[in-house]
Amino acid sequence: MSELPEEPNADPDWFRQPTSREHRIAGWLFLAFGVFFLMLFVVLRGWWFRWVIAGLGVYSIVFALGHLRDSRGRR
Hints:
With 75 residues, this protein is mainly alpha-helical.
């Protein structure tokens, strides 16, 4: 039975926390996606799946607000 070689410890700086600029970029992207999904909800009248699209839009906007809040806290 062959044994696997022991791997060195992972570098703790490899996965750093996002900067405030990266939080702002993510926040605006998620906000744009959320607005897009809500506009798509309006366009797709009469289709039952539009409620799932509306849920994705609301979720994206809530996630965007969290990113934007985190970007302000890092300054």
